[in-house]
Write a structure and sequence with these properties.
The protein is an alpha+beta fold. About 20% of the residues lie in helices and about 45% in strands. The protein has three helices and eleven strands, in the order ββββββαβαββαββ. The strands form three sheets. Strands 1, 2, 3, 4, 5 and 6 form a six-stranded antiparallel sheet that branches. A hairpin with a 6-residue loop joins strand 5 and strand 6. It is elongated and about 50 Å long.
Length: about 150
């Protein structure tokens, strides 16, 4: 049993991932079955392979839906899959997977999208692909990445 404070996840023979950052809990089931419940409430949802469960302060109860996020295990597998993915989402994924802070200097870049599949690439290799695709420059200082350019 994993208690995140916002949600309780009970393992029923499975593999899954949990994101309990901020004010919400997301559970994505890769195999088997997981029971997700809210602390001090009698609400529980059984999640199976391919399901995603969400608990957040903005919603009552628990949301169960198909997991459409191909990158939910990218932090572990280092496989990134972008299909017309906006740069806001790309930024979030890079931060999660590589443990860096990404700064996008020109807000026009946030309107850009990218389609690419990258397998087991180092951060610098991923940034090279993104930079060439969107005609951007980047710098890496310590754990901070800065993307510069005029947008797509």
């Amino acid at each position: 049993v994993v208690n995140t404070g916002k949600g309780i996840i009970k393992v029923l023979g499975t593999s899954f991932s949990i994101d309990a950052s901020g004010s919400e809990v997301q559970v994505c089931v890769e195999s088997g079955t997981v029971e997700l419940s809210k602390p001090e409430e009698s609400i529980a949802v059984v999640l199976e392979k391919g399901d995603k469960g969400e608990i957040s302060d903005r919603n009552k109860g628990i949301i169960k839906k198909p997991n459409e996020d191909e990158n939910y295990l990218a932090w572990k597998t280092r496989v990134l899959s972008f299909k017309e993915t906006g740069m806001r989402e790309v930024k979030r994924i890079l931060e999660d997977v590589y443990g860096v802070s990404v700064i996008i200097e020109d807000t026009n870049i946030l309107d850009c999208t990218i389609t690419s599949k990258m397998k087991k690439k180092k951060l610098k290799e991923v940034l090279e692909i993104i930079s060439r695709t969107l005609n951007l420059d980047y710098t890496i200082e310590k754990r901070e990445v800065t993307l510069r350019g005029f947008g797509c």
